[in-house]
Design goal:
mainly alpha, three-stranded parallel sheet, 5 strands
């Protein structure tokens, strides 16, 4: 296998990216032809053996079961730092816009759901390593940048977690891992529907029967 830098990032990816739309529970989603987890594992394992380290999935693929299959398989057969996983979220629904859900809140909810499905996020990995929540890892990182961040709290565990984050000390390597650069780009294709002027257009994809996580 040959490898290249992904865009302007420092990520080294295989010249072949494995598309994962064909993986997922055929009973949960738009397609009845997707393959089950056992066959998904077989294909991904073979891809890893061939040097493929780049995998592309989406929250919309078979109600998130594609992300779940991919995440579990990579956890079993690959080291987190050796693979690159791309996923995609969906634009806000008309109902979300009507209910005042901001684009930022929507994206956070989608990302949290995808990270839960995949189970391989860097923040999640560090949280497991330190025995704290992902929120506490985020605050521990923020505490390396500012003296006293303002943390809102509407539940007891919000302030309890914030206090706990003070004692969570990240290493230099862990901080560098969290800070690897991401370069945003203009919305295109289905994601362009997230713009207010396009909100009433019929969406191509949906999240299916999965429950979107709300923090």
């Amino acid at each position: 296998m040959k490898y290249t830098k992904l865009g302007s990032s420092d990520l080294n990816v295989s010249r072949i990216c494995m598309g994962c739309m064909g993986f997922g529970d055929p009973q949960r989603g738009q397609h009845s032809w997707t393959i089950d987890e056992a066959h998904t594992r077989e294909i991904i394992k073979r891809g890893l053996a061939l040097g493929v380290n780049f995998y592309d999935t989406a929250i919309a693929y078979q109600s998130g079961s594609s992300e779940q299959y991919v995440g579990r398989t990579l956890r079993d057969f690959a080291k987190r730092e050796e693979v690159v996983v791309a996923t995609k979220f969906l634009p806000r629904t008309a109902e979300e816009i009507e209910n005042g859900i901001s684009g930022q809140r929507h994206i956070e909810n989608m990302i949290n759901t995808s990270l839960s499905n995949l189970g391989i996020d860097r923040v999640a990995a560090l949280a497991e390593k330190h025995g704290v929540s992902m929120t506490e890892i985020a605050l521990a990182w923020l505490l390396t940048k500012v003296d006293s961040p303002v943390v809102g709290a509407t539940k007891l565990h919000h302030i309890e977690g914030a206090a706990k984050a003070v004692d969570c000390v990240l290493t230099g390597d862990e901080i560098a891992c969290l800070e690897e650069p991401y370069v945003p780009h203009p919305l295109a294709g289905v994601m362009a529907q997230n713009k207010r002027e396009n909100a009433k257009q019929k969406h191509v994809w949906s999240t299916g029967d999965q429950t979107i996580r709300e923090e």
